[in-house]
Fold:
Amino acid sequence: MTLNTVERQGVPIDEGTVLPEWIDVNEHMNVAYYVLAFDLAVDKLWQLFGIDERYIRDRRNSTFAVECHLTYQGEMNLGDPYVVAAQVLAYDEKRIHQIQHMYHAEKGYLAATGEWMNLHIDMDTRRVTPWPDEIRAGIGRFVAEQGDWPLASETGRKIQVRNPLFSVERY
Structure:
């Protein structure tokens, strides 16, 4: 498989290396560990907004992921270095929609994307609650500085078989 180097999209927020325990029987990074790498990068993004362990402990607020969609673009193998870049797509008083791009840090190709919808939660009531002013301001600062990238082609993708021989429902 030939992979082309692409121009990176998003603000770099995390980096890492594919670990031995992340390798599956197909001798590449297992799907579960892409989710882990993206989830760890979400934590780094939240820290930029002011959402950290102290915030969660003291304010009794956090976020819950309510939807996640991954796409796999190129294999990652044992020891491969990666960079995760984030782009906020939208946010409102209680929600944030963002996409992450995982790039091979040396070869430059796009390895995967993770698109997330998260809700801001009151941990005592376990209900959605508005962002406090300081967190909403942190998100706003990030958005103002993130750059002017186009909407990623992976955003909002529908999973489908284009010309199915069989489908439960025609889509």
Remarks:
- The chain has three helices and six strands.
